[in-house]
């Protein structure tokens, strides 16, 4: 299976090239983006990030000083803005007080998951993209991708993540690129209604079964 995952990565990389994730100027911007991108397209996050920059609020010390209503208005393009503003304030408070850089990856993940509004995908996105720690991010695209290929029949976050951790070397840049490439492929071909005819990845369980 390890070779299979590596082969798929090489195929994706050859076709799509480097994705350059995560687009941000600072570590804190990555953290903010990881919270805002929950249940929304990235283009909406970009609008909210631009609003925060224009308001000179995309620094932890400045964001934490905003009233919740003001913050909610700035991030309104991302939807669920009242809940997300509360989560951002909680995350920022913890970021300023807990010295996350000094924590082990395991402890950092534990701390993040204790923050209301932070789930596994958001926590792992922060750990991988903001702190450059080797932890694989699993999202709905990843689950769909690996189950359709037949790499696993399990659709739980932990099980899918375990497979990547066991079968790939713990490499930060590899994890970043692989996650981004899967998202790109899932949007182009491995959609809810897949374009199997256009897909260039062979030996797909889903494609074989759909042709029976």
Automatic annotation (TrEMBL):
Transmembrane segments: none
One GO MF term: metal ion binding
Record keywords, A-Z: 4Fe-4S, Iron, Iron-sulfur, Metal-binding
Pfam families: HhH-GPD
Gene Ontology BP term (one): base-excision repair
Record bears the keyword Metal-binding: yes
Superkingdom of source: Bacteria
Location of the HhH-GPD domain: 36-188
SUPFAM superfamilies, sorted: DNA-glycosylase
InterPro entries: DNA_glycosylase, HhH-GPD_domain, HhH_base_excis_C
Protein name: HhH-GPD family protein
Species name: Kosmotoga olearia (strain ATCC BAA-1733 / DSM 21960 / TBF 19.5.1)
Phylogenetic classification of the source organism: Bacteria, Thermotogati, Thermotogota, Thermotogae, Kosmotogales
């Amino acid at each position: 299976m390890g070779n299979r995952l590596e082969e798929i990565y090489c195929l994706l990389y050859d076709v799509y090239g480097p994705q350059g994730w995560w687009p941000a100027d600072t570590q804190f911007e990555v953290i903010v983006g990881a919270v805002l991108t929950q249940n929304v397209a990235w283009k909406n996050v970009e609008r909210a990030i631009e609003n925060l920059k224009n308001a000179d609020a995309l620094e932890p010390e400045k964001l934490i000083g905003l009233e919740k209503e003001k913050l909610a208005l700035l991030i309104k393009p991302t939807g669920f803005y009242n809940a997300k503003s509360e989560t951002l304030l909680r995350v920022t408070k913890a970021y300023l007080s807990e010295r996350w850089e000094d924590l082990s990856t395991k402890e950092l993940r534990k701390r993040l998951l204790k923050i209301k509004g932070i789930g596994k995908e958001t926590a792992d996105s922060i750990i991988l993209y903001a702190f450059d720690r080797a932890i694989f991010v699993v999202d709905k695209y990843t689950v769909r991708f690996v189950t359709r290929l037949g790499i696993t029949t399990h659709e739980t976050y932990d099980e899918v993540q375990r497979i990547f951790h066991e079968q790939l070397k713990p490499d930060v840049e590899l994890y970043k690129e692989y996650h981004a490439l899967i998202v790109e492929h899932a949007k182009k071909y491995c959609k809810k209604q897949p374009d199997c005819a256009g897909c260039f990845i062979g030996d797909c369980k889903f494609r074989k079964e759909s042709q029976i």
